[in-house]
Specification:
Structural class of chain A: alpha/beta
Number of helices of chain A: 23
Strand order of the largest sheet of chain A: 15-16-14-13-17-18
Shape of chain A: globular
Strand content of chain A: 15-25%
Largest sheet of chain A: 6 strands, parallel
Number of strands of chain A: 22
Distance between the termini of chain A: 84 Å
Oligomer: homodimer
GO molecular function, one term (chains A, B): ATP binding
Function (chains A, B): P5CS plays a key role in proline biosynthesis, leading to osmoregulation in plants.
Keywords (chains A, B): Amino-acid biosynthesis, ATP-binding, Kinase, Multifunctional enzyme, NADP, Nucleotide-binding, Oxidoreductase, Proline biosynthesis, Transferase
Family (chains A, B): In the N-terminal section; belongs to the glutamate 5-kinase family. In the C-terminal section; belongs to the gamma-glutamyl phosphate reductase family.
Pathway (chains A, B): Amino-acid biosynthesis; L-proline biosynthesis; L-glutamate 5-semialdehyde from L-glutamate: step 1/2; Amino-acid biosynthesis; L-proline biosynthesis; L-glutamate 5-semialdehyde from L-glutamate: step 2/2
């Protein structure tokens, strides 16, 4: 106590000792009094320091219950936290927190979030802490009691002076005990790397299965989805209710809802994927390298995918089944709005995966704080696919060395040429902007050939958009001609019923504008002149280039790719709308009869293509 | 001077004024004395501060020559630097350095390295500096005089207190004048970004050409290589001489040499590439999406490539012609040993590219300091291909967000199964290690089935290697059985006549070992058991997996890919030995008749594959 006083004095803070007895807590009046006393002391900026009043204690053996009686300093602290309705209880130890085994054993891992159901039996407690009476067993018991009575508890090391500060700043320090932990952190005790490594190991087992066995897994998943319809809907309804309470936008809530029809349609699409030709091990190229030496280029799974998606829980089912079809391991991070739906869907799917593959093929990442850890694992994760806002995609692209498949921007152009069919131009321009204004393949900039100003076609196009409620902004030329407010930048994605208009010299001007200001997503020309069309199709360097068709067609399903993994504006690997092939790479398989290189002497290279049997 | 004294006093340093006259320098004795005086002062830690002795100066008009007479403080400084044989002269200005135009003009760019031949006529000098007598014109004149007399000069801003410190730490501050600048920094005045942007613009012009025109460019390059054989050899001989003087390893010098045969073979390979089927615009997939709506997936150039290669100058020709064939822009950085050879080869190739495409299609980066700048440009460079040491590749992979195609490690395994043909096993194992021990596809670890210990096959394999001078290290099992020194790690690439040996349980043990310790480059099984072979081929998850053939076949030329871009151990984009297809991406081209999406109403998706016409 003298030491506490000396230390607090340096901060000009007064500390006061309160010596209590276990028996005192039996008295209701004492408890009330205690609350008031502590409150008054805190108002006076006096720090109460509790300890057991050993001198008058009558206790013989330590109590082992939580009936309001304490049995050491840890349980005293838990008890006080409850009585005083503390916001947080911090228990300081001589180790970083609770480990899965003795902290001195290098195989022991720090548990970041304690989950009673999971950890209670799993943990091997070592010797008790060298300081004070209570060891880690006692601390955990106290922490569990307080946590499940509603007081969050953190056990952390008292040796690092900054730990308390870190805890208060919400950083991941020590071990957290919280009554809801089981709901929101089923995986945080396994490190990100462990998850990725386990997913890769399982994916290798999946790849070793026969094509028929992999197909069967998808059928089992489809059946399991239908069989668990009620459970899925029950969990989904909780998500929907939470979203409505939180005042989430109606359109977002609608995307969250899993109707029986949606579940059955999802099961149907999983079966469709199962019936698809096996994408793994397809021979893409076959060459006779030399007599009796045959080389094949075959399709092969990428390895481990990390997919970060927002809101819609059905995406989880689509992505998981795509990963299984393509033999990949998967780490999934869904939006928090769909937390319960994602958890149940993940469970239903994982339970349907046979033990020979293992339940860790698909890992569900539930806390946002895991993401930065996962993005660092460029040696064990092969591809990240973010499906969500531009901000999400950009943020991921900027923070990871893992290849990212996706698109941050969708600045799509429609160029209306002087040789256009005017009705067609109006139809395409309207559809490209209005069919779904917030989509990444919606038109953001309309480019019009200068000759269309004279014959009033420009005005017709403008009217077609404005009469449907589209707000228009002009480039330097168009804003003068049409008396429109000037667009702040041509590189702007509105994602709403708004777009930029500009007048260009000709098709070359349009191409130049698109190269300068586009995002290489999808661009379209409307013209009846086949030469101009081909010029545009050949020269515009975007992932998708259309002639006389709405930019809205730029989509995996509309392209006929089956399930869509995402749309990529990158140039490496897959580009544009990406189907299952974006989840595959290749391997070179060579079968010989003992051939050696030996300085390329004694081998006659033939390099003959061998036709691939269908 | 009083101000200098006050300032230096604070640092406990004494400063002393030396007032000199232009006429003093005519006296040889004065110059000798001056040297001794300054030396003594510096020994006493006294800072000499020179100024013109205006009071006794007889000069009327400023002198404009460099005969040893100064005409302002800048020329006085240059003169003193020469007389005192300074290591470096720093001229402080009120702007950051020398700009291409008036520093206030936003179009003016800071010149990092001044090249007399290039900049003398190009620069527009503005008003003279507001401080002191000498403007920028005077400074540049003084700097050029000192630099070409052997004293490096930097002009930088005197406003930033840390600039002198930065200059001394070798950071890129201000404008550097050096007599060799023209040799090693022909491009440093154009920023890295400008080079990349110019290469992309030129590549678009190249892509707009007909296939025949692109072919013709390659023919012109081949002709130019032969026509310029003498010049190329002359420059190459200078590189070779320098390398020999520097005591470079003989094998490295040999790789540097460009014989007439090599030049003619290079020209031949460029012509061969010209005759190859045009890789751009090939239709890879064709689908009828709906009636009258046809979708094509076509091959398309990546954009701009950055290739960093070491030593061999012929790589420059191969890479440049591959880039042209695939319609890509290119930035090249070669090794400094091949500086002159690379420069002349680059010039010969660039001169053969027609003006319609432009000379900036292929940029030659000559100074190492440009590389970090280039690696930051992930928005304008699409792919980096490092061809060189593991260290080079790792370093590049760790410092850039641009996708990297290549391999850092080549830890290749040969697994000899119990059912092997022993002679074949010895032949393959010897070739895999000895054909070229430093190659990335050479065997680093030999795995042997445990049954081969009993029948002495293990000993035969060991003898085959040891008798050819291979140093062997054993894993925990093999080191005991064979009494070998223990290998420090299984994840080790020797790159020399050394390798690790380990005994494994069976093919599963081998596969597990390879997944745990390999680099997914090339792995081989030697067995006569077709089932075991297929298991190995299917399950080993490496870029190349061989049955009964040496790992040394893992190579673009031996695979029959034509020119080799590199070997990739990544899983995204191309994998294993990569030919021209690694420099291509895809574009989706859609041709319609005015179709719109309109919520997918009124359109009947057919998604029929259309056969591709050859």
């Amino acid at each position: 106590m003298a030491y506490y006083e000396t230390m607090f004095d340096q901060l000009d803070v007064t500390a006061a000792q309160l010596l209590v007895n276990d028996s005192s807590f039996r008295d209701k009046e004492f408890r009330k009094q205690l609350n008031e006393t502590v409150k008054s002391m805190l108002d006076l900026r006096v720090i109460p320091i509790f300890n057991e009043n050993d001198a008058i204690s009558t206790r013989r053996a330590p109590y082992q219950d939580s009936s309001g009686i304490f049995w050491d300093n840890d349980s005293l602290a838990a008890l006080l936290a409850l009585e005083l309705k503390a916001d947080l209880l911090i228990l300081l130890s001589d180790v970083e927190g609770l480990y899965t085994g003795p902290p001195s054993d290098p195989n022991s891992k720090l548990i970041h979030t304690f989950i009673k159901e999971k950890h209670q039996d799993e943990i091997t407690f070592g010797d008790k802490s060298r300081l004070g009476r209570g060891g880690m067993t006692a601390k955990v018991k106290a922490a569990v009691n307080a946590a499940y009575a509603g007081i969050p508890v953190i056990i952390t090391s008292g040796y690092a002076a900054e730990n308390i500060d870190k805890v208060l700043r919400g950083l991941r320090v020590g071990t957290l005990f919280h009554q809801d932990a089981r709901l929101w952190a089923p995986i945080t005790d396994s490190t990100a790397r462990d998850m990725a490594v386990a997913a890769r190991e399982s994916s290798r087992k999946l790849q070793a299965l026969s094509s028929e066995d992999r197909k069967q897994i998808l059928y089992s998943i489809a059946d399991a989805l239908e069989a668990n319809e009620k459970t899925i809907r029950a969990e989904n309804e909780l998500d929907v209710a939470t979203a409505q309470e939180a005042g989430l936008e109606e359109s977002l809530v609608a995307r969250l809802v899993m109707t029986p029809a949606k579940i059955s349609s999802l099961a149907g699409s999983v079966r469709k994927l199962a019936d698809m030709e096996d994408p793994i091990g397809r021979v893409l190229k076959k060459t006779e390298v030399a007599d009796g030496l045959v080389l094949e280029k075959t399709s092969s799974p990428l390895g481990v995918l990390l997919i970060v998606f927002e809101s819609r829980p059905d995406a989880l089912v689509q992505i998981a089944s795509l990963a299984i079809r393509s033999g990949n391991g998967l780490l999934l991070k869904g939006g928090k709005e769909a937390r319960r739906s994602n958890a149940i869907l993940h469970k239903v799917i994982t339970d349907a995966i046979p033990e020979t593959v293992g339940g860790k093929l698909i890992g569900l990442v539930t806390s946002r704080e895991e993401i930065p850890d996962l993005l660092k694992l460029d040696d064990v994760i092969d591809l990240v696919i973010p499906r969500g806002s531009n901000q999400l995609v950009s943020q991921i692209k900027n923070t990871t060395k893992i290849p990212v498949l996706g698109h941050a921007d969708g600045i799509c152009h429609v160029y209306v040429d002087k040789a256009c069919n005017v009705d067609m131009a109006k139809r395409i321009v309207s559809d490209a902007k209005l069919d779904y204004p917030a989509a990444c393949n919606a038109m953001e900039t309309l480019l019009v050939h200068k000759d269309l100003e004279q014959n009033a076609v420009l005005n017709e196009l403008i009217f077609a958009l404005q009469s449907n409620g589209v707000t228009l902004y002009g480039g330097p030329k168009a804003s003068k001609i049409l008396n429109l407010p000037e667009a702040r930048s041509f590189n702007h994605e509105y994602c709403s019923k708004a777009c930029t208009v500009e007048v260009v010299e000709d098709v070359y001007g349009a191409i130049d504008h698109i190269h300068r200001h586009g995002s290489a997503h999808t661009d379209c020309i409307v013209t009846e002149d086949p030469e101009v069309a081909e010029l545009f199709l050949r020269q515009v360097d975007s992932a998708a280039v259309f002639h006389n068709a709405s930019t809205r067609f730029s989509d995996g399903f509309r392209f006929g790719l089956g399930a869509e993994v995402g749309i990529s504006t990158g140039r490496i690997h897959a580009r544009g709308p990406v189907g299952v092939e974006g989840l595959l790479t290749t391997r070179w398989i060579m079968r010989g009869k003992g051939q050696v290189v030996d300085g390329d002497n004694g081998i006659a290279y033939t390099h003959q293509d061998i036709p691939i049997q269908a």
